[in-house]
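new request in #modeling-help
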Amino acid sequence: MPTYQLKYFNIKGLVEPARWLFALAGQPYKDHRFQEGEWPSVKPTTPCGQAPILVVDGKQIAQSKAVFRYLAKQFGLVGETDMDQARGDMIVDYFEDFTGPLRVIRKEGDPPKKKELMAKFMATLPIYLGNLEKLLKENNDGDGFFVGEKVTWTDVVFVCNTEIHKRFLNPGYLADYPKLEALVQRVEALPAIAEWIKTRPVTEV
Amino acid sequence: MPTYQLKYFNIKGLVEPARWLFALAGQPYKDHRFQEGEWPSVKPTTPCGQAPILVVDGKQIAQSKAVFRYLAKQFGLVGETDMDQARGDMIVDYFEDFTGPLRVIRKEGDPPKKKELMAKFMATLPIYLGNLEKLLKENNDGDGFFVGEKVTWTDVVFVCNTEIHKRFLNPGYLADYPKLEALVQRVEALPAIAEWIKTRPVTEV
């Protein structure tokens, strides 16, 4: 069995979906969270000077989506067919199209600028969420998962991020998208995920 | 054999790597380029309201990277091992980290704002290119391809985009990165690619 180590800050942040994938697979790993001041010495040893990093038997993978996809493959948590896998990739990248800018907005320090960016974001949000609801409904009428018959990393990335979005936007931001909201409930209720949410380190973000 | 159709505007733009993958595989496909005014009627029929779209036997895949990865899998142009595939994904997403903002800068209409964004971009560019050169050298001392022993979609995405970067930044922007520059020459010299470059529709971008 390979040994796995995740290296990241002591937050959910970008890496939380990887922790959910480990939980779903029941796969032991070292969830290494940088101590105060540790990152600068680790940074030059990483492939791209970025965290998170997944270390598999000493080999490093950077970039969160590359990490998730790799883990999902090892754990049987990608779609069964190449077409399902492509649809899964598509949905993750489409979701990232609006999640990326949201990260920029959260970091923006200038209040008027932040307000302007946020207004722009809120105007396009219904388009993104409407399309995601539509894509979900194209598989099992939206009562299952984004692709195939069982949970995949695509559902995990979506649901895991809505945790943060609910906090930052508002807890009811999915109210007009009942299939997406039900997917969130369904994935969070998977026993391994429910257990991880209950027992994971408490962090603000 | 499946039938393939690419749908995109009459530019290289986001989709050109897919065309290079078809060329490398010698795979016939319909390279559908929207006529003036055609896109608005196509847009609502696409998965995410976005182009490019790949249509495979009537099923649609959106999001350029999902399209490239899918085609690369069909054509044997992904890495052999899961680890190589993850490294390939990582390099593409890392490369996208600086290519994405560059697209925003190109579209920025306000000159002072454009100048400010460009200065910021140019300050971080050597970090990205330095890391990409380092990543390339980690495989076959940088004299082969990004992962494994033969060309993959990761090389194609990189090289294809440097065409645009050379034009927008300057033709010599890789001068300090001899392994990256040699990779560009190597991939562009592959007979199928050289032939495509020579015969493809002439477009400005």
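bot summary: The domain at 82-190 of chain A is CATH 1.20.1050.10 (Glutathione S-transferase Yfyf (Class Pi); Chain A, domain 2).
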